[in-house]
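Hey team,

Filing this mostly as a record. A colleague (T.K.) asked me to run one chain through the structure pipeline before their review meeting, and I want the input and output archived in the tracker in case anyone asks later how it was produced. No errors, nothing strange. Just documentation.

Input sequence:
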Amino acid sequence: MSDVMAIGGLSRKAGVKVPTIRYYESIGLLPQPPRSDGNRRLYGSKVVEKLRFIRHARELGFEIDAIRELLDLAEQPQRSCAKVDALAREHLCAITSRIERLTALKVEVENMIKACAKGRISKCRIIDTLSHHEHCLHREH
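Output structure:
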């Protein structure tokens, strides 16, 4: 293995914290690394690339299972990218849905603030709205 590094070096090169690297190894997202005679984890440059891929996918909001599938697909370069496209489209739909829910929540909070008379708590529309959840948006998660 050329350019072999310990977990701290991998952490710095990939921009991922050591506990996160260990977690990814524990769930099988990263392979268990070979160990030195002193039982230290040893990583090569391919792991840096893989970890950067994972980090970027997480930054984009992909779930672990989708990342696992994307990593598997990335190892099959001759295969059609239809599944990758489907995963990205599915993720985009989830993002769009989340934006719609957040937009509705924003409007509700803005309405609570506008309704506030800025007087006493006993007449506060914000407290009243929060106390009576039937007036608030009620969404399943």
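Quick notes for T.K.: The chain has two domains: 1-79, 81-141. The radius of gyration is 23 Å.
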